[in-house]
Design goal:
Blueprint: E1 4-8, H1 13-25, E2 30-33, H2 44-47, E3 57-60, E4 63-66, H3 68-78, H4 89-119, H5 128-136, H6 141-151, H7 157-178, H8 191-200, H9 217-228, H10 230-237, H11 242-254
Length: about 260
């Protein structure tokens, strides 16, 4: 049906989802790197692909696909390679449950903490005028609000506390779930593992109060196993910076 181009940032959170799904399926794609910290996602060239100005997006021939989880499902169904969705209806429900939980409830909390501790400060060298110009180009109003808060350190203590609470609760639920079966939603690796891993692979770094071999042995076992997957290693090898360094450091500990 045509060439595949993936518009993505680092293998992390939403960008990492289609990267990993394509890699697991063994599907070749042209990579179009969007430098999120330079705000490439709000430049006209990318807005012509995804007018919402969020990443990732994927084109397959003339078809333009957005929404990372929906893209993963498309990749799983449109291409040969190992199935990333289980056959059993209960397992399928569980895959969808976990993906929804991550996308709607837990993921935004990981993002808020990430924006505050890493992304916001990485823009500190920009002048106020430069930041305002960057904000003015953001198409989605809710994104403009979130970026403003990240850039000017305006997330309230209550918002941050709620995100930390959700992360602790989410880790607790994940630990419980992984005590029941080898992978998040079924006995085999699935889209749910890809989705959850992209936001939790960094838990072993600096979160010893909520995730450690002693506190969360099931998560630790699962992370170690997912880290070893060839498709996961190939995906993070495509990263360019700090995220891949962090992945490599954890990998060294797991080896
Ligand atoms: N629901 C969308 C969310 C995409 C999204 O928020 N992506 C983030 C990166 S993980 C992004 O584009 N951030 C840049 C921005 O909002 O300007 C999806 O799953 O694809």
């Amino acid at each position: 049906m045509g060439e595949i181009t993936l518009y993505h940032w680092e293998p992390n959170a939403n960008s990492g989802k289609p990267m990993l799904a394509l890699e697991e399926k063994g599907v070749a794609y042209a990579s179009h790197y969007i430098n999120m910290l330079q705000f490439d996602q709000h430049q006209p060239e990318y807005l012509a692909v995804n007018p919402q100005g969020t990443i990732p997006a994927m084109t397959h021939g003339d078809l333009v696909l957005t929404e990372s989880t929906a893209i993963m499902e498309y990749v799983d169904e449109a291409f040969d390679g190992p199935a990333l969705m289980p056959a059993d209806p209960q397992d399928r429900w569980r895959v969808r449950w976990w993906m929804k939980f991550m996308d709607q409830w837990l993921g935004p909390s990981f993002s808020m903490i990430g924006w505050c501790t890493f992304i916001g400060p990485s823009l500190a060298s920009k002048t106020e005028e430069e930041r305002e110009a960057m904000l003015a180009r953001i198409p989605l109003p809710e994104r403009r609000v979130a970026w403003r808060k990240a850039m000017f350190a305006e997330f309230s203590e209550a918002e941050l506390a709620e995100s930390r609470r959700r992360i602790s609760k989410g880790v607790e639920l994940l630990e419980e779930e992984l005590g029941k079966r080898p992978f998040v939603a079924s006995n085999a690796y699935s889209l749910a593992d890809i989705n959850i891993f992209n936001s939790t692979y960094m838990l072993p770094v600096g979160n010893a109060d909520i995730c450690s071999p002693e506190l969360t042995p099931n998560i630790w076992r699962w992370l170690r196993e997912v880290y070893q997957r060839p498709a996961v290693q190939r995906t993070w090898a495509k990263g360019t910076g700090r995220f891949t360094d962090r992945f490599t450091a954890v990998m060294r500990d797991f080896a």
